[in-house]
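Please fill in the sequence for the structure shown.

STRUCTURE ENCODING:
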């Protein structure tokens, strides 16, 4: 089995994550001065939001995410903004203009993002339930489509499920 995995890896195949599956653990450097390991957030609802400084929809989405985080963080909800810029400096410049209080983690090699590469474009949001399972994968952001309301509904749904 290990040989087969190695062969698939060498040939460029990857094992993508999908809704309903357990989210693979990862540890990434954070803008808050420490590494964040996803498994340490078990028991909370987690929204992984993949973004980059060059992404137009990310500019629109970031203040919405901050409002959602401010409203629901005390109820067992956390957002991890997974930055996919090549350098932390690019992310820092972006965040100076659009500050957020939720943790930003850096994925410059796209190690975590590539688990979801079939969901092209940016932003991509992955909702992980309190048991560490991928509940939903949301691609893009459009206010006109009601994405902010969809995010809030999903967060409430997952928080209620954790409390049950």
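FILLED IN BY: designer on duty
SEQUENCE:
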């Amino acid at each position: 089995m290990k040989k087969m995995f190695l062969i698939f890896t060498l040939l460029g195949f990857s094992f993508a994550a999908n809704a309903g599956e357990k989210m693979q653990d990862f540890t990434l450097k954070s803008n808050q001065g420490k590494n964040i390991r996803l498994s340490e957030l078990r028991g909370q609802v987690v929204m992984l939001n993949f973004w980059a400084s060059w992404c137009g929809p990310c500019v629109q989405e970031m203040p919405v995410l901050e409002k959602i985080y401010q409203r629901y963080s005390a109820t067992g909800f956390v957002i991890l903004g997974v930055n996919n810029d090549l350098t932390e400096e690019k992310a820092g410049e972006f965040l100076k203009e659009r500050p957020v209080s939720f943790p930003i983690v850096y994925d410059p090699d796209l190690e975590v993002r590539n688990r979801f590469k079939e969901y092209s474009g940016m932003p991509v949001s992955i909702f992980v339930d309190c048991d560490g399972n991928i509940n939903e994968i949301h691609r893009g952001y459009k206010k006109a489509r009601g994405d902010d309301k969809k995010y809030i509904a999903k967060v409430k749904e997952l928080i209620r499920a954790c409390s049950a």
